[in-house]
Amino acid sequence: MLPALIARYADRLHAAIGSDHHVASPLGAWLVLALAAGARPDPALEDALGCSAADARGYASALLEKPHPAVGAAAAVWTRADRRTPALQAWEAGLSAAVERGPVPSQADADAWTAGRTGGLIEKFPLPLDAQTVLVLASALATDVDWAEPFEDVPASALGRTDWELTTVLRSAPTHQAWIAADPEAGDIAVHRAASGDAEPISVVSVIAAPDVPPLTVLRAAHRAADDDRRSLFDLPLGDGHAWTLAEEPVRTTSRTGREERCEAILPAWDAESTHDLMDAGFREAAAALFSLLAPEDDLEAEAVQTALARYTKTGFAAAAVTALGVRSLSYVEPRDGVRRTATLRFGRPYAVVAVANQPGGPWDRVPVFSAWVTQPSGPTPPTHPPRT
């Protein structure tokens, strides 16, 4: 179910982005929409998600709480303390415990969060943060894997006719998968799939269709490309297709039919870095939902941006995306002269101490574990065991 929802949303996201060279993470954007969906009932937002708000939050929670071993996944909600209305606090309480929480960070701290959650692949948070920022909802996804078997470098002439100026390209390894498939929308397509060598692999699927097939149609075909759509090479004409050359030669074979089929793929290495405005990809509805959590007298505006990058090379695949939805108050009051009071608390007579376990949603939550009544303080003493690191 979830793969179909993300593929559906990818259609909307890529339509908003356009057909220039780019990389994006529909999943990263969808996660932010899913977390925002609980702010208030909104059929338009649920339509963007492709499911109910409750189901979307359930899917998002499962992804964040049980991350894939080869995909780093994180989400955060940051709020200004003076804008934490009861409605906002109730919405936040309904989010998964895996969603990080805290005050709106400085720009430097947001950049550090971005670099930390993407393994350094992305260094800058996609939105500017300042004193007028009252709420930020963000997701980060990252992967960096080696192919189980690397490609082979071959001269660019192996790619055949192309408009690209290249000197070398990549030829698929024997353990890669390549085939020609019949897609219900895109027609006959060429498919290549390479996988990482991890126990829980990442697969990267490349799909090319005839040149007159629209990009969105090819993207949809790539989302649904599967082995069971293979066409037999003996059902296709010899010679040049739109993205392949089919040849035949006599061989010695052990096949009972006397026929063997083999595909290899030639494709370029590539990389992309992109920044996308997401407001037309369901984020206007998400922003309106978050606006409802804040004080009605606030004059608010929203911005939604995704930064993404990817590198597809001879030896592996790396990609990361950070998606951010920020809400700013236009009614911010400039700081002015005022008064601050500070209390210094002094425990100079007997007092009580209680140690409480914190485990949101778990059996230990708010359970007092130790308690004490202190009447005989002691001076500082050396630790009895090494400090924990």
Quick summary:
With 389 residues, the chain is α+β, with helices and mostly antiparallel strands. It has helices at 2-17, 26-36, 43-49, 53-65, 86-93, 107-117, 215-224, 279-291, and strands spanning 72-79, 100-103, 133-146, 152-155, 168-171, 177-183, 187-195, 203-208, 239-240, 245-246, 266-267, 270-277, 300-312, 316-329, 351-356, 368-374. It folds into two domains: 2-145 and 272-329, 2-Layer Sandwich (Antithrombin, Chain I, domain 2), CATH 3.30.497.10; 177-264, no CATH class.
Kindly list the characteristics that best describe this protein.
16 strands; Antithrombin, Chain I, domain 2; about 400 residues; alpha+beta; three-stranded antiparallel β-sheet; six-stranded mixed β-sheet; 8 helices
Explained architecture:
It is built from eight helices and 16 strands. The protein is an alpha+beta fold and 389 residues long. The chain has two domains: 2-145 and 272-329, Antithrombin, Chain I, domain 2; 177-264, no CATH class. The protein has a six-stranded mixed beta sheet, covered by helices on one side. Strand 6 and strand 7 (187-195) form a beta hairpin. Helix 1 (2-17) packs antiparallel against helix 7 and helix 3 packs across helix 8.
